Amino acid sequence: MNDELEKISFLYDLTKFIKIIFSPISNLEEYKKSFSIIYERLLNSKLFEKYKINAQILNELLNNSEKDQLLIEYSRLFIGPYHVLAVPYGSHYLENGKLMGESTNEVEQLYARAGLLMNDEFKDLPDHILAELEFIEYLLYKQYEAIINQNGQLIDYQSIFKNFVLIYFTSWMNDFVKTILGATDNHFYLIASNILFEYSNDIKKFSKLQQN
Questions:
Q1: pLDDT digits (tens, 9 = 90+) for 122-151
Q2: Residue 96: beta bridge partners?
Q3: Residue 89 in 3-state DSSP?
Q4: What residues have CB less than 8 Å from 105, skipping those under 6 apart?
Q5: Peptide bond before 88: cis, by omega within 30 degrees of 0?
Q6: What would the pLDDT profile of 178-211 be if each residue is shown by its tens digit?
Q7: Buried (b) or exposed (e) across 101-116, using 16+ Cβ within 10 A?
Q8: Cα–Cα distance between 189 and 173 in angstroms, integer?
């Protein structure tokens, strides 16, 4: 595997890992299983070295946590019901607290440009962090596929990836991370936020290497 494919493959797995970390926990055992599978795979990558200590701590915290503890904190931070402490929507940070703003529509248009429509089973806004991570994961996969198959689509997917990551994703991650850090003393989500911060920096650096 050449360096570019190795980097894309690593970021694909890392994106999946971040997505799992920030997913709601309805079944703790299933959550642990999903976490463990991708965690063990990432441990085999030399590119994971800078994340390893925090990921190990997160793994230990998860294995020593009770379901209700994490479920309650996740809900308190990201769902509510009365006041959401760490709003997980891009437009909230990009448009001064507005939800379903112009940036949300632009995100959905980028999804469509890449050939995707919002899944009817996803009952949330297009710029929710989980939807955006899913999109990054998809674009990384399509880049990998385009390199392997030499199908001429690489530049298109690189262009979409670069625009999305720089304008609509990493542009609000710092504020989102700061909000979480200021809203919780739960060690799991404190460590998770540190990992998200490092991921945002790495995906931003990688996107700057993409074609326009």
A1: 678 999 999 999 999 999 999 999 999 887
A2: none
A3: strand
A4: none
A5: no
A6: 999 999 999 999 999 999 999 999 999 999 886 6
A7: bebbebbbebbeebee
A8: 15
Question: Which two tokens mark 196?
Answer: 């998200």
Q: Residue 141 carries which DSSP code? A: H
Q: How far apart, in whole angstroms, are the C-alpha atoms of residue 130 and residue 122?
A: 10
Fold for the domain defined by 3-207: TorD-like (1.10.3480)
Closest among 137, 130, 108 to 176, alpha carbons compared: 130
**Can you state the angle between helices 187-207 and 49-63, rounded to 10 degrees?**
150
In angstroms, the CA 104 to CA 95 distance is 10
Tens digits of per-residue pLDDT, 91-122?
999 998 899 889 999 999 999 998 887 666 66
Structure tokens at 78: 């990201």
Q: Domain residues of the chain, as ranges?
A: 3-207
* Tens-place pLDDT, residues 56-73: 999 999 988 876 889 999
Query: Per mean pLDDT, which of 18-27, 77-86, 164-173 is the most reliable?
Result: 164-173
Element (H or E) spanning 17, and its range?
helix 3-21
Q: How far is residue 51's CA from residue 49's CA, in Å, rounded to a whole number?
A: 5
